[in-house]
Design a protein that fits this description.
The chain is an alpha/beta fold and 143 residues long. It has helices at 2-13, 36-46, 57-63, 67-73, 99-108, 133-136; strands spanning 18-20, 51-56, 78-83, 115-117.
Length: 143
């Protein structure tokens, strides 16, 4: 924890936010952080305002499920969200996660941070971006 606190302090002076990210044990066997609550306890123990949670929807669907209430419960700790669908870590809409519901839920609960896409397109990169048109249309806050 001392190393995280030190890194948070140094990065804060450079105006860089330090994020910690839980990952799933199927893709990353032996990874230390594997759940949202575990990461929240770590962030609380480090007790530095420059340390936040990077919530990877793909990883947490595999490890925990229950995405919407978990995101709502930890909203104040989340510094960044990454998305991909499961199985396969492909673009939203190719698997089991209801992304229209989840992205609308993030708007409803007041998430105003960035959402990064970290996935392997199921076909081409261009085709793999079609899902985003709904959220990138003129007038939508994400546009």
């Amino acid at each position: 924890m001392a190393n995280l606190r030190f890194a948070a302090e140094v990065l804060e002076r450079a105006d860089i936010r330090l994020l910690t990210e839980p990952a799933n044990t199927r893709d990353v066997p032996g990874y230390f952080l594997t759940g949202t609550d575990q990461a929240a306890r770590l962030i609380q123990a480090v007790d530095h305002p420059n340390l936040a949670l990077q919530y990877d929807v793909y990883h947490m669907q595999i490890m925990e499920g229950d995405l919407a209430p978990t995101l709502e419960r930890h909203l104040g700790r989340i510094g960044h969200i990454q998305i991909a669908d499961t199985p396969g870590r492909h673009e939203p809409g190719t698997g089991e996660i209801d992304y229209p519901f989840l992205l609308d839920h993030l708007d409803r609960i007041g998430y105003r941070g960035c959402i990064g896409c970290e996935y392997h397109p199921a076909t081409t990169t261009e085709a793999g971006l079609d899902w985003a048109r709904r959220w990138l249309k003129p007038g939508h806050r994400g546009a």
